[in-house]
Amino acid sequence: MYRIKKLDIYIVKQFLLLFAGTFFISLFVLMMQFLWRYVDEVIGKGLSIEVLAQFFWYMGLTLIPQALPLAILLASLITMGNIGENSELTAIKAAGISLMQTLRPLIFITALITVTSFYFQNNIGPKSTKKLAQLLLSMKQKSPELEIPEGIFYDGIPDCNLYVQKKDLEKGVLYGIMIYRMTNSFEDAAIILADSGRLQSTADKQHLLLSLYNGEWFENMRSQEFAGTASVPYRRESFISKKIILDFNSNLNLADEANFAGNAQAKSLKQISRAVDSLNHHYDSIGKVTRMDLDRMYSYTYPGQTTKTDSLAAVKKGQQSTYSFDTIVARLKPSDKRDALQHALGRVQMITSELSWRESVTSDGDQTIRKHWLEAVNKFTLSLTCLIFFFIGAPLGAIIRKGGLGVPVIISVLVFIVFYILDNTGFRMAKIGAWPIWLGKGMAPAVLIPLASFVTYKANKDSMVFNTDAYRNAFMRLLGLRLKRNVASKEVIINDPDYRRAADRLSVMSHQVRAYAYGHHLMRMPNVINVFFRYQPDHEIERISAELEEVIEDLSNTRDRFIMAYLNQYPIVSEKAHTRPFERKWMNITAAIILPVGIFLYLRMWRFRLRLLTDLRKIRATNTKIVERIGKIAVQ
């Protein structure tokens, strides 16, 4: 039976604290992104604090399932990164505890979060989505807050266009007012001019009180008694002070929830299953009706024409070799031919338009059904993403061993971007019917699950996957780059170098290097057959390089600064790059068959041969300098 240990409690505390912080950060970022999309529906509507609180509350509930995977990824990365950076993970492994045993309590917590995420999406998420959609629709339909601009006509007030030349915000006075009031028709329009005025909202926020000063009122007197007359009287009124009541409802009226009955995101799995059954039954009925209508359209007979049975008999007769349709048409009069063509064209156009309309109906139905199935699958995949992200974040943290918010945040953002692109692309393609639903929603897990398995395996085997030095050295070897030799002088020297023996070995090595350079003709292009198909091993450079390294190691104990400078002039010799591209024969043959790769490797090997010749010459020159310096030291 598994017992909870102090190590488990310690790791769980570290993870939960970081998970709480990263969850609220992720949720805040997602809420700001969502708010930016609907900022026009929120700003400038005069919404109360209560309405805004409900909006942010339901928005947060809706985005919780999306914030959970990102929070788990970031928290697991930072947790294992901190443990690895503080050498705690090394101590844990030294105690005989494997990485999977260390992660066992975190796996249990992540699985619990995964189940909670699914329950949340299936029970709480649909309700919050419906409430949020209801609030958004109500905000769109709400009248905007009264902010009258200067110099342009403002049409935010129903049945009224208001023009203000200038505003005094401190006193709340409007100057140069012009109002066009529309009632039943254009003839009933009223024009009001005023030098100044004030605009205030009533206590119930259902009307606006407009107080005007020093102005005139022009209004047509169109009514029933003047309907037949040519001239229309109008009324002109001059006033010093006048008050007008305008209709303006600034309260928020919630939309009917029945408008969101077809929203798949506002349904649980049980409701989605029922909705899909109803939709299938509905569109099957439409398909049956469509077939019956098309049968009637095709079998419809006009006066003087044959019936459907006669038409079938005529088709069979027309298939006979002795029967010629062109001959019958040729016997018709020109007027009959024209009528027949016009009739056929009309029938084709009618049927085409009918089929096009019915196709749009069925395609809309298919898209609605796909949306429901996509939402049902999304509840499972989004919950599963929590577990996938944990097995990406925790092993990566154990491999990288970097805590804090630097490297973990960068890696988390990169992984989440890859997931978002794959998931969003698959969702859109499945939504329009270009991809199957299983492919659209399974593309992101299909890519991330192998990645999670790979990094988990490498972390459990203590593999240095992200060893930058190893990648840098491999890249430099591929391009033929190399590091410079760096032999540093030692502060404490136990054994002095054997100068005489070193000088003798360097002298012999210089003759061997010269003989090798002239004997192998390094300046010539290598033989293609010998390179890729008939490789003969060359161990001479390996032996010379190994002997040179021994001499350098012995002479590095010297106190002479000239010899130390000469030692750093020795090149680092590539021992096998000038002989063949790869160690294995079948890889060389494959590279030769793949022509572009073979040409690149052949030219690369020729370059290494020329560089080896340069290195051998430099070794001879450096040997001469060191031998001469050793001779001077011996004389002293």
Please describe what this structure looks like.
The chain has 18 helices and six strands. The protein has helices at 6-37, 39-42, 49-85, 88-94, 99-141, 269-299, 308-318, 325-331, 334-400, 407-431, 437-460, 468-479, 499-519, 528-532, 540-555, 561-567, 585-593, 595-635; strands spanning 153-154, 160-168, 173-181, 190-201, 207-220, 234-247. Strand 3 and strand 4 form a beta hairpin. The longest helix is centred in the middle third of the chain and has 67 residues, at 334-400.
Itemize the secondary structure elements and their pairings.
Blueprint: H1 6-37, H2 39-42, H3 49-85, H4 88-94, H5 99-141, E1 153-154, E2 160-168, E3 173-181, E4 190-201, E5 207-220, E6 234-247, H6 269-299, H7 308-318, H8 325-331, H9 334-400, H10 407-431, H11 437-460, H12 468-479, H13 499-519, H14 528-532, H15 540-555, H16 561-567, H17 585-593, H18 595-635
Antiparallel strand pairs: 1-2, 2-3, 3-4, 4-5, 5-6
Structural features:
single chain, 636 residues, alpha+beta, six-stranded antiparallel β-sheet, 18 helices
Count of beta strands: 6
Shape: elongated
> What Rg do the Cα atoms give?
43 Å
- Termini, distance in Å? 79 Å
Reading the helices and strands in chain order gives HHHHHEEEEEEHHHHHHHHHHHHH
User: What share of residues is helical?
Assistant: 55-70%
Mean pLDDT: 80
Number of helices: 18
* Uncertain parts: 300-306
SS-based structural class? alpha+beta
How much strand content do the residues show? Answer: 5-15%
- Read across the widest sheet, the strand sequence of neighbours is 1-2-3-4-5-6
Q: Largest sheet, if any?
A: 6 strands, antiparallel
